[in-house]
Every structure is written in C-alpha cells, then in structure tokens.
Write a structure and sequence with these properties.
2 copies of one chain form a homodimer. Chain A is globular. Chain A has 2 domains: about 290 residues, Aminopeptidase; about 140 residues, Alpha-Beta Plaits (2-Layer Sandwich), CATH 3.30.70.360. In chain A, the strands form 4 sheets. In chain A, strands 1-2-7-3-8-20-9-18 form an 8-stranded mixed beta sheet, with helices on one face. In chain A, strands 10, 12, 14, 15, 16, 17 and 19 form a 7-stranded mixed beta sheet that branches. A 4-stranded antiparallel beta sheet of chain A has the order 5-4-6-21. With about 500 residues, chain A is an alpha/beta fold.
Chain lengths: ~500, ~500
C-alpha cells in the first residue's frame, strides 16, 4: 500500500511540476535571446537552398528540408498532391485542445538576377553592416557568436519572403518545447511552394483538402511590418490578377531607317494604349475601375490611426511625389491597382539595334480589394482596349489577321487570388492582440488591408475561417528584388512574436 | 636591223593585243557567271569571321583578312588610326587616269541574338531554299557546284550588310583583271569597322585624312535594292541620331502590392511621355519637328516614279496600316523619323516580378534628312519633355534630386551622322546610269533619299564630293535582325554591277 501511495505521489507530483511549469509565464525576451543564434542557424540552413518556383527541381530539396525539420520535431507531415508542386501539410494535435489554428508560410522565392546582387551568390546568406560611407559591408557570420547589432542584416533570397518567418516559427517552437510548454490549441501548418508564381493550384487544392485543413482561424506569417517597424498585424490583403499585353508591329523587326515613319511602331502604340489608362497622377481613368469603394469617415479614421510618416516613406522610396489614387498611403491601398510590372520591346543598352521592333509587351498586375471582382475589372480593361481600335486576340495573329486589322493585341489574363479582409474585433483579432501585449507591452499597429497579396482568399472561402497576417520582417527588405535581406532585430522579434502566439491561451 | 624591227613589231603587237583586249566589251553576264562560285567562296570566307563592332577583339581578324585580300591583289593598304578601331584605306593608281573614285564599305555587323537564329551559328554561312511548306531548309554548300537557283539564299550575319557587297567587289575585280582590264580611273577604298555602332570617330577621321581620301566622287556599296528587287541607285541617305531616355521611379524596385497606387510607376510615366510625342497615325506632334520640308509637285513626281507596290510592302511587313507621316512610302522617308527602337522596364515573360520598377528606358533613334538639323530636333524634343514637367538630367539623380523633383528623366543624346542627298544629274549620277544600262539594258530605279543611314555626310562635307549609293542586296535580307541573308540572284547581279562600274569609262 505504501508503495502504491508513493507511486501515486510521484505521479501526481510529476503532473504538478508540468502544470506549474506550464502556468509559469515564460520570460519571452530572455528565452528569445537564448535561442537567437540557433534561430540564425535555422535561417542560414533554409535560405541556402535555391528556391525559384519557376524551376520545380529547385523546390525538391526545399520540401525535403521542411519534412525532415518538422518530422524531427514530432509533427505529422503529409504531402498534399496538387496539379503542380505539392503542398506540405503538418499537424500537432494537443490533448484536450478545443481550438485549431492553421499557420501558412511559403517556401519558394522570386527568381534572382545574380548580376544585380551585391554578393556572389543570393543563396549564400551574407551578414552585412552599414559602414560609415553608407554601403553594406560583409562580415563573417561567426562575429555573431560574440555580439551583434539589431541593425545588421542577413542578405539572401527569401531571407524575409518567406523563409525567414518559417525559420522564426521553428526556432520559437524549439524554445517553447525546451521550456516544457505546448500551445493549448491544435496547430496545423500548410507550406506553399508556388506562392511567387501565383499559387496556381492552391484554390482547387484547398477545396480538395478542406477537411484536413479545417481550423478555427488562420494565421499567415508573411510580409513586412508597418514602415515604422513597430509590431504590426494585418487584417487583410489585396488579391492579385495579371494581364500580359502584346502589341504587334511588323511581323519581323525591321530596319528603322527603311521603315521608320512607315511601319507602325508597336512600342509607341503600346505606350499610347497604356498612357490612355491613367491620368498624370496615377489614377486609373477607365470608367468603373474603382466602383464600389466608398471610404466612410469611420473607415478613414481607422486608416488614419496607422502612424504613417509619408515624408519618410517618400524619402525611403526616393520619390518626389506619389500617385493620387488615395489621399494617404493607407487610403491608396484600399483601391485596386493597375501596375506595369514589366515592359519590353526590341533591345536596350549594349544590345540596342536600330529597328522597328516586331512587338511590344507590357506585364500588368492588378491588385484587388474585396469590392473589385477581377473578372469585372478585366472586362473593363478589355473594353477600353477595344475602344482604342484594337482587335484583341488570345494568341499571336495569323498573316491574314495582320493585314486585316490595323491594330492587333494579344491578351493573356489570369487571376491568382482574390482579396480578403477580417474585422479587427474577430476572434483571432482579439486573441492576437493579447499575445502582442505580452510580447511588446503595447497594442500592435493594425492594418485594415495590406497592399501585397497572399493566397489566402481560397482558404477564407473554402474553410470559412477568419485570417490575420502576422507580419514580422523589415519593410525595406527588398523582397522580390536584388539584395533581399532581413534585419537581425526583426528576426529576433519575429521569434518572440511566434513564441508569444504559441504560448497564448486560446 | 631586222632583229630590231622584229623586236619593235613584237612590242607594238603586244601593245595592240592589250589595247584590243581593253577595247573589246566584256560580256558582263558570261564573265559574272564564270566567277560566281569564286564569289561565293569569297563571301563564305568573309562572313565566317564574327564581327560585332561592340567587341573590338572580333574586328581584328576582319581587318587582317581585308588587308591580306587587298595586298594580295596588288593594292596599297594602310590602316588609318582613329580614336576607335582603325579605318582601312586601300588604293590602286591607274597610269594616266584623270579621275578618282572612292568606294566605301563597312565590314562590321550588328550583334547577334543566337537563340533567335534558325541555324546553329550566325557566323557559319548556311545555304537554304524555301521548301514547299514555306520554311527555309538548309542544304550543303556543295550543291552549288552542280547548279543553283537564284532564289536560294545564304544566311549569315553581314551576308547582306555589308560584307556581301565587299565580297562582290573583290570578285568583280578579279574577273576584270583576269580579262586583262583595268578601270580608266584611280580607285580608292575605305573600309569602316564601326558603322553598326554609329561610326563615332568617322567625322573627325575624314577631316584628318582628307588628303588621302580625296576623290572626284564617292560610291557607297551598302544597302538593299528597291523592294521590287530591280537594279537601283540611291542618291542620298537619311542621317541618324539617338536619344536614350530613362524615367526614374522609386530608387529601388518596390513590391507592387505595397506600393502600387502610391510609388509612381516609371513605365507608365515613360509611356505617357512617349505617347505625347506622336498622334495615333504615327506623326510627330512636337511643334517644329517637320519644319523646312515642303515637297513640291515636281519632287512628288520624282518620288512617284519609284514603282512601289504598297499593298505588297504591307503584306511583306505583315501590317494592316501604315504610319501617315507621308502619303506614300517614298514621301514618308523624306521626313525625319522618331522611332522607339527599344524599350525596357522591370522584367517580362518567365522572369517577370511583381514590382513597381525602379526605372524605364526608351531607346530612340531619329533619322535625319538634309532639312533637319539634329541639334534643332534634340532641342525640340527636350523642350517637349520639360513642358511635360520633367527635370532633365544627363546622369542618374542624386537622393536630393529624387525627393525634390516629382518627375525625373535622364537624357543621353548623340548624333552619329547627318543626311546627304546628291542630284540625279550630277557627274556620278549620269556615269552610273551608263554602267547600269550596260549591265541591265535599262535605267535603274532612282531613289531620292533612302530611309537607312550611312556615315557618308562626313565625306560629303570634308571631301566636297558627290556621293551615290550602289545598292545590290535583296530588301528582305533581315539586316540588323536574326536570320540575315543574301539572295543568290542578288549576289550574282551585285558582282555584275561592280564589274560594270569598274569597266565603265569615266
């Protein structure tokens, strides 16, 4: 009997320790600091794997790394097959949990234009500090073992977008486990490997796997903090659709001496067409483009609470004036955009040739808000093009069409994903605010909708869950461009943010 | 005495044979036919040497080849040093000659975009015939030894522009010499190795070497025949100048989600600026651009004598309508042009990135006529840009300038060469007509000014000589673009043209 009692006592006391440990609030700052260097190692390991989603062969070692790193931490992982590259799903069920939170990250990155990077290899993470002459100067990674400055940065493709946040999450998870803690909710993770090419198979896959993905809310860890670099939550994201327009000139490029003044120049024609779409202050003048968006005074007041310093933004961007779609930065992103992301005709620079080019191409992206259905916008833009005298094709013209129609254009349009917007006072909004209060001792900046796009609308639609974006990285991270980077201070506070969320009772 | 008489007889008789030989008219067709295959070999040898004038190291084997081939034929050659790659000068003095004719050729070529050529190597001349399905089909060069079709073509960079004509000239020279003939005038040759990069040092070099180059007239063997492919002479050429315009957006490319609708898009701005320069029918609407050009009825009648078939031209170019600068093709090239030869911003196609680009560039070429001084046109275009609110720089902006000026543009302008125009009834005009009558039994088509540019105005100005362009190649030779070629029939008639000119008494 005594033996039994002792055993019971030992058992109860073991439970007590665990409960006590769990009850005790973690010192988020101290725990984060203690795990920072391990976090840097996680980041380095992950960004060292090339991840251009235009090249699926590059994605294979990425998904393998993620599987190994989740399996090794005791998660159940599963590849979800899609029409393209698989999604990776992982889950961690917690006994007695009442709620489930689904985290989203993407592991792929934009292509790299190596000659424009100021380091030998965009996939070789490089620690840099800003030197006295304002240049980023490389340092050996080992200096971090002695001390570091939060202003230093690690440069590598996807350091911010979006491998950095996933590395923060893994680091926070390890820190939590090491301190004997677990979330009081079930955790699911979905990793996307095709975000930078518009997640073409995500919408159908979310529907296909909606039982597996089912959750009470979804947190997207992707994107930068507010420009002030203060802790930020973002409650929505613009959607994105794209159109490639190709205006046709002569069938083959022609000598500009022989046919300049005679063969219509497709670059001029494209310029004239594009110019007709916007006024001198960047507002789209295609009728109906902004229909349905009417910011009320109450909404404008919410937007005004975001502490934007527009003079700073302009200085940072190096611009003397802004487009006038909205009265402020926050207002501007409540509207759909019509952006030329790329344009090409003939050759420029060292390769220039004295020709009338054969064609001219504009790559357009249209960012969407909940009020702007992309098919409606496409129809408006298409009608505008037709009203300018163009015969619109979905392929290159035939010889007969070339001679028949004075103005020919090819239209290739597609919708990647719609916009979403979650109310500030939704369940995730209120819960995350508590986690941020614990981590930072103050309310986060709350963004009504962020300008960038996330493939979240399919989740919102299929799973019927509210979604909030937990943004952590520095806004000047050069994401999508050369010299992408993450600021060490943001990386560390990102670990702390993830740790606060994982340990916040739901 | 008898011995002496015999010697005298032998001597006189030797002279008589030579004189008889010289008096006897050559059968131009038969002689050309007999030398055709040697001519093809000359062409192959020359176009096999890569000759992109952006890479001077490629030019060295070209100038060496030309020296060896002229020295070997008994010409005196001399490199004329310039600020860039040397010119090659050659001369052949003829005893008792009263006149001197200077021939101009260029040996360099445009760059090649290998992936757009339908053959492994643009510097590996490839014989092709049009097959039944309308595709150019390669054949071994050896088939020419049995028979050939004038419609077959040899594809290679510079096959038409302008190594082909120099190979014709060398072939005609050899044919003439083999038949014991010589011109009755002194012949000088100047070879340019920087024509495709605008012959930047030619104007100053012609002044520097004007005593060496002195001549009574200048013949430029470069450029295509009239579209009808009938024998053609061209009495002038438009000049050429160029402007590179760079419109600045944000200092670095920005994520189009975060800054679309806010950071002004340089591609849109460039489009708007370019669009403002022309009307919908391709006419420049910058005031004053066409000043000084008033075609009289007499001039229009001369232009109308050129047998253009505009429906054919449009079909050939694959265009449904033409720009309306002139009422006809010939009229259109009596005016300066404003052509966008290249345009670029951000990335397109597989490399597309969802950004607001940092800048947008337009490469413009302005073709000149004698009435349009390029500096005057530059001033008009520049004022037009300033009137659209741009602050114009000749370099990239500083950070302070970026914030100060809402619209910033970089202007890089240069004049390659002016236009020239020689009267039809000038000495070379009348003399060449006789040579063409001998060769073809009919008057050539006479072009008042050709659309393309030749670096001839510096010669006309410095040497005070009339200049005429002897054009021989097929107009659909794809010069400057991929798949440049020469039609065998044109190559052969080009040899005959050169032979007729070399043997035409002056």
């Amino acid at each position: 009997m005594k033996k039994i009692l002792t055993l019971v006592f030992v058992y109860v006391s073991a439970i007590s320790v665990t409960l006590a440990q769990q009850k005790k609030q973690l010192d988020l700052d101290a725990v984060t600091e203690a795990h920072f260097l391990k976090g840097i190692q996680n980041l380095q390991d992950l960004v060292s794997i090339p991840n251009d989603s235009n090249d699926p062969s590059q994605l294979v070692p990425n998904i393998t790394w993620c599987e190994e790193n989740l399996d090794g931490r005791g998660w159940n992982t599963k590849r979800l097959e899609t029409g393209g590259f698989p999604l990776l799903f992982a889950e961690k069920m917690v006994p007695k949990a009442k709620k489930t939170v689904l985290f989203y990250f993407h592991i792929d990155g934009q292509p790299v234009d190596r000659k424009r990077w100021e380091q030998a290899d965009p996939y070789q993470p490089t620690l840099k500090k800003l030197n006295d002459s304002g240049k980023w100067e490389a340092m050996p990674m080992e200096v971090l073992e002695n001390s570091y400055d939060p202003e230093w940065r690690i440069f590598a493709r996807s350091s911010s977008d979006d491998k950095g946040p996933f590395a923060m999450f893994l680091t926070a998870w390890d820190a939590m486990v090491e301190h004997g803690k677990m979330p009081n909710y079930n955790v699911k993770i979905i990793l996307d490997f095709e975000e930078e090419i518009g997640s073409p198979y995500l919408p159908e896959s979310v529907v296909k796997y909606k039982d597996i993905l089912a959750a009470d809310m979804m947190l997207i860890m992707d994107g930068p903090r507010h420009l002030s670099n203060e802790p930020t939550l973002s409650f929505g994201a613009r959607g994105i659709s794209q159109i490639t327009l190709t205006v046709f000139g002569p069938r083959a490029a022609q000598h500009s001496g022989h046919y300049g003044n005679y063969a219509p120049n497709p670059a001029f024609r494209l310029s004239q067409l594009l110019a007709s779409m916007k006024d001198d202050e960047g507002r789209v003048i295609i009728p109906g483009f902004y229909d349905g968006i009417q910011l009320t005074d109450a909404e404008k007041a919410i937007l005004d609470r975001v502490p934007d310093n527009e003079a700073d933004i302009k200085r940072k961007l190096g611009i003397g004036a802004t487009d006038k779609v909205g009265g402020t930065y926050q207002e501007s992103i409540q509207y759909p955009s019509l952006n030329i992301r790329g344009m090409a005709s003939g050759w420029v620079g060292d390769e220039v040739r004295t020709i009338v080019p054969a064609d001219a191409t504009a790559e357009i992206d249209i960012r969407l808000v909940p009020e702007s259905d992309p098919e409606r916008l496409f129809a408006l833009v298409r009608k505008h093009i037709e009203d300018h005298g163009y015969h619109v094709l979905d392929r290159d013209p035939t010889d007969a069409e070339r001679v028949k129609y004075p103005k020919l254009i090819k239209w290739e349009g597609s919708v990647s994903y719609q916009a979403f917007r979650t109310p500030f006072d939704s369940e995730p909004g209120l819960w995350l605010e508590k986690a941020y209060m614990r981590a930072f001792g103050k309310e986060p900046i709350k963004i009504r909708i962020s300008g960038g796009s996330l493939p979240i609308a399919p989740f919102v639609d299929a799973l019927q869950v509210p979604a909030v974006t937990v943004v952590t990285v520095n806004s000047d991270n050069n994401q999508h461009g050369p010299n992408e980077n993450i600021r060490l201070g943001n990386y560390k506070e990102g670990i702390k943010t993830a740790l606060a969320i994982l340990t916040q009772e739901l």
